[in-house]
Write a structure and sequence with these properties.
By secondary structure, the protein is an all-alpha fold. The protein contains 7 helices and no strands.
Length: 183
């Protein structure tokens, strides 16, 4: 350590270059280079692109598989009909779907709908209307009758003693954990 404040050595060179030529080009070049490097890392993680130099390919593959598993689990929660249609092949089907795209769609709902379309194209799922996997909104004050009821609502039920015949928890509790291919 040279006794300089943290970050001083890093920022001094670009600042000196900008002052020397009066344009700020050195900083803009550095930002552009960093953005390009970040784009290569993201492409390797989500689109199966080549692993950038300096990264461990094994760890990058493991992280990419983890991101796909996370997307698969969320998609199965949003559109359980897709998980049922894919059955025990859910993990393989979703991995093939994810590899076929350059980048994930913007948002989990779009991802879920795109995966449903992917399954329909392959004859794994019957054609349905686009909102088939979505919950209908409940009017204020009414109890939700589906597996998507909120934690707060389930907590209120527990306080009121609303349990099954033998006192067990609702059958819908963590229903998605029993869908094949999510574990």
């Amino acid at each position: 350590m040279t006794g300089e404040p943290p970050g001083q050595a890093y920022t001094a060179a670009p600042d000196a270059a900008r002052v020397a030529n009066g344009t700020g080009v050195a900083h803009e070049d550095e930002v552009a280079r960093l953005a390009e490097a970040q784009a290569r890392v993201v492409a390797a993680l989500v689109a199966g692109a080549e692993v950038p130099e300096g990264f461990d390919p094994g760890r990058m593959r493991a992280q990419a598989a983890s991101l796909i598993a996370k997307r698969r689990a969320i998609v199965a929660r949003i559109r359980p009909d897709t998980a049922v249609a894919a059955g025990p092949d859910l993990a393989a089907e979703f991995a093939a779907y994810a590899r076929a795209r350059a980048a994930p769609p913007p948002g989990y709902r779009a991802d879920a709908d795109d995966f449903a379309a992917w399954l329909r194209e392959r004859g794994r799922m019957l054609p349905t209307e686009p909102s088939a996997g979505r919950r209908a909104k409940q009017p204020a004050g009414q109890r939700a009758e589906d597996p998507g009821e909120s934690r707060a609502e389930r907590a209120k039920q527990a306080e009121r003693g609303e349990r099954g015949e033998r006192g067990e928890r609702s059958v819908w509790r963590r229903w998605w954990s029993r869908i094949p291919g999510l574990s």
